[in-house]
Amino acid sequence: MKKIGTLSLIAASMMASTAFAADFSFDRPGIGMGTGITPVGHLAWEQSLPSVSYQEGIVDGEKDKTLTVNGDMLLRTGLADGLELQLGWQGPVWQQYKRAGAKKESNGLGDVSIGLKKSIDLKDDRLSMALLAKAIIATGNDEFTAHDDIYSLSSAVAYEFSDLIGTSMTMRYEAQNSNWAVTAIPTIDYKIAGKLSGYSEFVYRKAESQDYEYGLGTGLVYALNNRTQLDASIGVDLNGDQKSYNGGFGVSVLF
């Protein structure tokens, strides 16, 4: 009887873990945060292949261009039911700067981050919520670091209208060296065909003593299975006369 009881408990545990894994969602791509939590005993690896940004502006009457390529990554693991630990790294970075016919190339390593993400049970099958407390530690090389640590608290609320369309809102509050910033990111995601889906988001950001910043982003996600996905994304900043674009490719795996 004890052996049968033990086997039943193991089977029930495996079924619960499988169901939880099926509800899991990756945070890539996009700037907005998902509400999914990594199951206990599992590891999610989210890797860019790579991320790219391009900026073009006018300084003292001369056009300057900056191209940045980096391989950022994020590791997520479940600590308890509804709670996960996140470890991130902006990865190796390569940058090219052009101005007035001169070109400069540099490379180095970016900052690391650590965070705790907690799901909030709203007692609704279609409505979900999560909170993320995160610290970006300025450990990168001089040209690729925030210089001062950044502490943030983010919240995300997602609502599934149907199996085809969902929406979410991410709010992020940041503090860096006594300066604050707030970012709002409304997002819509949609099924396209089969395993292919897409998303579109609007980014609003206001930092202390800085002008308002706006951006648009969109991307595609292809789910190889419920534990692996490929993604491609592109975005544009809508800030004055300066041209700024970002995008990239990525892969995410749940082990």
Number of helices: 1
Let me know the number of strands: 15
Largest sheet: 12 strands, antiparallel, barrel
Which second-level CATH architecture applies?
Beta Barrel
Q: Assign the structural class, choosing from mainly alpha, mainly beta, alpha/beta, alpha+beta, or little secondary structure.
A: mainly beta
State the CATH topology.
Porin
Summed up, the domain count is 1
Strand order of the largest sheet: 1-3-4-7-8-9-10-11-12-13-14-15
Query: Into which percent range does the helicity of residues fall?
Result: under 10%
How far is it from the N-terminal to the C-terminal residue, by CA? 33 Å
What's the gyration radius in Å?
20 Å
CATH C-level label? Mainly Beta
Strand content: over 45%
Keywords: Signal
Pfam families: Phenol_MetA_deg
Signal peptide: 1-21
Protein name: Transporter
Question: Explain this structure to me?
Answer:
Residues 1-21 form the signal peptide. Pfam families: Phenol_MetA_deg. Keywords: Signal. This protein is mainly beta and 255 residues long. 9% of the residues lie in helices and 64% in strands. The protein has a single domain, classed as Beta Barrel (Porin), CATH 2.40.160.40. It has a 12-stranded antiparallel β-barrel. It is globular, with a radius of gyration of 20 Å.
Summarize the topology.
Elements: H1 2-23, E1 43-59, E2 62-70, E3 73-80, E4 83-89, E5 92-99, E6 102-109, E7 112-120, E8 127-137, E9 150-160, E10 165-176, E11 179-193, E12 196-207, E13 213-225, E14 228-237, E15 243-254
Antiparallel strand pairs: 1-2, 1-3, 1-15, 2-5, 3-4, 4-7, 5-6, 7-8, 8-9, 9-10, 10-11, 11-12, 12-13, 13-14, 14-15
